[in-house]
């Protein structure tokens, strides 16, 4: 056999959904590159996917199912594993009802077919499932409240922006395919702003970098609107396309510009200059995902939406307030999954909700594409909830902190062995993933895995269909627009249902077509995790995709603070990062470009190695959307 080129799409939880091109010879991978013809991928990939092939040979890669026997996880066959799973699920359903079974699915892969798991647990029950979304729950709820939809203008609409405001995003880490667009804007003399309490490489992309206090964005946005209001520079037609304008103006008037600047810890001048940028539009706001993971996260995004609308930028080409691209909008997801559930466990409150569940209590937890022990707040309580549950199944290509607490671990194909359809939350292209490599012998595609389970439980008819048939069902919605599976196999296609401009002139998708403006401040309670002088910001790292590290991160993860915040300590010192929730060891990095009130740490550590940020983070929800308030956490640093 000669060398063969294979095309796929990256399935990671990443806005970019890159087109992949691999060179394969005799089943061996020779090279992995970004698709040069994909308009957003432009031929390059991030480090974590470029290095992914190394992980396939690692010791955590699962090649066969593991079953707990005499307290230890031991290898078994897929037939044994599925027999056991079917027997235990059937017994628990018969004794306690389907609500005693909790199916938790997260975003380890964004492949649309991963939702066959939801379909199975709906057909088998309906069982208990999760509500809310720890990733983007608050921001999506905010945009749905304001606009009736959470979606964006075309990716290349930024070519028409005079100012681009990157509001809380680290493009070099988590959205690298936006960088060429930003560089182009600057090369053409258009202005780029970065608003982020953290100093990072993204500042090098910006003409102006504002470094407000963490969570200061609500005051910053209201303050900018106050400047516009005082200068009589709000859009004169705002009353026509906005609901509750008077109440919003009353909110804007509740503080002076100087008070807003103080609350955001910025100079008045910064607010005035930013207001000028909104006046001198078209100005696009690129709303970061990170900053809505706060108690007031939904209100913060709502204030940004109001700023876009009231400054007259929401409906202009080159304007808009972009938080999310509707990655599922091209697909008929109802054809493969279902939302029915017996009851819900709130995702940010996984630990407490599972432990408190009654009538019936949770007796089984099935985890698909998630590592909740590392990635959900209050890791210890999540671990305890799993340990106390009678029957835990984890479906994952790798053995994780969550898998190590399971009674059964089922391997599935990894990123390079995947076969699925993908949309993106950072642009409007869709793609197909196809196996570049074969999965280990005996490892089943998730569709086949659930069909194996279904056939043992009398549900074969409800789960029937080949992987390609499932894909065709998903594409049913766009078929009439000339998009077929065959067409997708030629390369990535733009979602034909996505318009260039999200909104027609001066009308959003709310019930009355008007922008629903924010009109009050949220109440933000303080909690036990708040005792400490530094804001603990657990953020995406270039070296990992959430809990999936590109290579072993070593014994200690790094915590970065301003030198004044760690008096008497030096870079390289071993320190404890601690609060009322607990203490984790870390290697200290001093960086004088950071604010004095922050401590930066990677978001996805290893819990069993004492490296999980979430061991220090309380389980609390955002104001709307049942997001997790990961970033509202305080810590102290102490030398060990
Ligand atoms: N390398 C890598 N890439 C990833 C991921 C990863 O783990 N690693 N994760 C993926 C996932 S799951 C997601 S959801 C996406 C998004 O991943 P996120 O990590 O959510 O990415 P950002 O939205 O860039 O959020 C982080 C940025 O928000 C800033 N920020 C924090 N608090 C505030 C604040 O109060 N105000 C403002 N203005 N800014 C603030 C941080 O300093 C940082 O620059 O990326 C994906 N891409
Ligand atoms: N402290 C703190 N915590 C955070 C965040 C933060 O900013 N700070 N960010 C949050 C965000 S934005 C997110 S999205 C979550 C992410 O949380 P998770 O989605 O739980 O994290 P991941 O590590 O991306 O993926 C989970 C698992 O999915 C597996 N997986 C990969 N591909 C497949 C597949 O095809 N099938 C199956 N079954 N499994 C697969 C991976 O191997 C991995 O073990 O974390 C959240 N947690
Ligand atoms: S993780 Fe994101 S940037 Fe990296 S290859 Fe996948 S889609 Fe592209
Ligand atoms: Mo996320």
In short:
With 640 residues, the chain is α/β, with parallel strands linked by helices. It is built from 19 helices and 29 strands. The protein folds into 3 domains: 66-134 and 328-494, Rossmann fold (3-Layer(aba) Sandwich), CATH 3.40.50.740; 137-323, Dimethylsulfoxide Reductase, domain 2, CATH 3.40.228; 534-639, Barwin-like endoglucanases, CATH 2.40.40.
Describe the secondary-structure layout.
Blueprint: E1 3-9, E2 19-25, E3 28-34, H1 47-50, H2 52-56, E4 66-69, E5 72-75, H3 78-96, E6 101-105, H4 116-124, E7 128-131, H5 137-147, E8 163-167, H6 171-174, H7 179-187, E9 191-195, E10 208-210, H8 217-230, H9 238-241, E11 242-243, H10 245-252, H11 257-264, H12 268-279, E12 283-287, H13 297-310, E13 321-322, E14 344-346, H14 350-356, E15 364-368, H15 372-375, H16 379-388, E16 391-395, E17 408-410, E18 420-422, E19 429-433, H17 446-456, H18 467-474, H19 485-490, E20 493-494, E21 515-516, E22 534-539, E23 544-545, E24 548-549, E25 558-561, E26 574-579, E27 582-590, E28 598-602, E29 634-639
Parallel strand pairs: 6-7, 6-15, 7-14, 8-9, 8-12, 9-10, 11-21, 12-13, 15-16, 16-17, 22-28, 25-27
Antiparallel strand pairs: 1-2, 2-3, 4-5, 4-17, 18-19, 19-20, 22-29, 23-24, 26-27, 26-29
Helix pairs in contact: 3-17, 4-17, 5-13, 8-11, 8-12, 8-13, 14-16
The structure holds ligand MGD (2 copies), iron/sulfur cluster (SF4) and molybdenum atom.
Residues 13, 106-109, 114, 134-135, 293, 368-372, 375, 395-398, 400, 412, 418, 538, 545-548, 603-604, 613-614, 617, 630 line the site of one ligand MGD.
